[in-house]
Amino acid sequence: MPSKKLIIRTYLTPEEHAQIKASASKAGLSLSTFSKRVCLGFSVPSLEHQAARIELRRLKGDLGRLGGLVKQALANGADRQTVHRLLHELDARQRELQQAIAVIR
Q: What is the largest CA-CA distance in the chain?
């Protein structure tokens, strides 16, 4: 049975085709899906942006766990040295988060 889907034909130079194909590959999509999304005005995030968002989520979890450890240390009457070490670790994670955010821009 013939497909009821319609086809749009576009004439491209080899350079244009290569550029569109590279963009589709960068987004992790087939050429057809990529073209359809772009033509319909949908956002097409690249794989790098997707990986960066995953990294941000991981870092956010790390920061939450560290915050919990600081609260636990304070509740248990931990010495200042331990709390300072945890705070320094928290600062390191925040710097990692800033670097990941810079990748997205």
A: 76
pTM for the predicted model, two decimal places? 0.49
Question: In this structure, are residues 86 and 73 in contact, taking their beta carbons and an 8 Å threshold?
Answer: yes
SS3 content of the chain, % helix, strand, coil (to 5): 75, 0, 25
**Count of beta carbons in the 10 Å neighbourhood of residue 86:** 19
CA distance 62 to 90: 8
- Per-chain mean pLDDT for the chain: 83
Q: What is the pLDDT of residue 90?
A: 80
**Nearest C-alpha neighbor of 22 from the set 46, 43, 40:** 46
Cα-to-chain-centroid distance, residue 47: 8
Enter the tokens of residue 49.
């942006």
